[in-house]
Specification:
Helix content: 40-55%
Structural class: alpha/beta
Strand order of the largest sheet: 1-2-3-4-5-6-7-8
């Protein structure tokens, strides 16, 4: 593409859309960038433990408010160079000029990363804080999708929200935003984590009604620590349903029982999603592999 970045010489990398459309269900894992060397060792341990499962792709997020950009890019480059995994590079508008965004996209391209997740991102104060565009940056994810697509042969993914984005006036408006991102060139979507299968299937139905037919991959976060998940939900605008809070709370301070119940609930949700036709599952791993591996084992036993 004129004006874009040259293709990497490691050979053509399949796009996520192609991988998901290959007929088999997609299974993918998301990590967050470590803050220090110890955290990086934990991250790479999880990556190596999950690599044998041959996920469709893995991704590494930006930190809160767009922080940790350089570490995110470095880890993503390492995955591309040193593993058999297909990495998806994260990219957000938060605190970045268009020149800075082009620089990150160029770094991904140079490392052979051809799949990018384009997000507006949350402001430093969290998803409910007032959004402020960088003076030389972009305002919306749809603008970022267009920028990435203009710079090369990238497969671009976007976020989707089964319970709607905190800034959306209603579910229909939120679905229209997703459809606009697809119209701009997005080829797949990954959802925020959620706990009711009906919320996911309703999102898919709303998108399809608008002619948006990109694969929407449901995001899964197993509950291994209730307070932690409630905090994540509060920060993201998601909801931990009252019936789940009641169920998990019944185990009190028994961490083993809480964890077991959380994995069972996640396994049940995955069963419902796959049984209803979801194209795959995207696991928010929190940089640890054990819970994800246990859910995989459960799903294989029930298959």
């Amino acid at each position: 593409m004129s004006g874009g970045f040259p293709s990497h010489d490691r050979g053509r990398v399949e796009t996520i859309r192609e991988l998901v459309a290959g007929g088999e269900r997609s299974f993918s894992f998301e990590f967050f960038p470590p803050k220090d060397d110890e955290g990086e060792r934990t991250l790479w341990k999880a990556i190596r433990e999950l690599e044998p499962f041959q996920p469709t792709f893995v991704s590494v997020t930006y930190g809160a408010g767009g922080s940790t950009r350089d570490r995110t890019v470095r880890v993503t480059e390492g995955i591309a160079a040193d593993t058999t995994l297909t990495p998806v590079g994260h990219l957000t508008c938060v605190g970045q000029s268009c020149d800075a965004l082009r620089s990150v996209i160029g770094a991904y391209a140079a490392a052979g990363v051809r799949n990018v997740l384009a997000l507006r991102g949350d402001p430093p104060g969290g998803p409910t804080a007032t959004w402020e565009r960088h003076p030389e940056g972009l305002d919306h994810a749809v603008d970022l999708v267009q920028l990435v697509r203009s710079l090369g042969d990238f497969s671009v993914g976007v976020a989707a929200f089964p319970e709607k984005h905190p800034e959306a006036v209603d579910l229909e408006a939120d679905a229209r935003v997703l459809a606009a991102k697809a119209e701009a060139g997005a080829q797949f979507a990954v959802t925020q984590f959620f706990f009711r299968a009906d919320d996911y299937f309703s999102l898919v139905a709303r998108a399809e009604a608008l002619g948006c037919d990109i694969p929407i991959i449901p995001g899964i976060m197993p509950i291994t620590n209730l307070r932690q998940i409630q905090r994540f939900a509060e920060l993201s605008g998601a909801e931990v349903p009252a019936e789940i809070v009641e169920h998990i709370s019944a185990f009190g301070d028994d961490k083993t029982a809480v964890r077991s119940a959380g994995i069972e609930l996640a396994t049940k949700l995955c069963d419902e999603l796959l049984g209803g036709g979801a194209p795959g599952l995207h696991f928010y791993t929190l940089n640890r592999s054990k819970a994800t591996r246990e859910i995989f084992t459960n799903l294989q036993v029930r298959a």
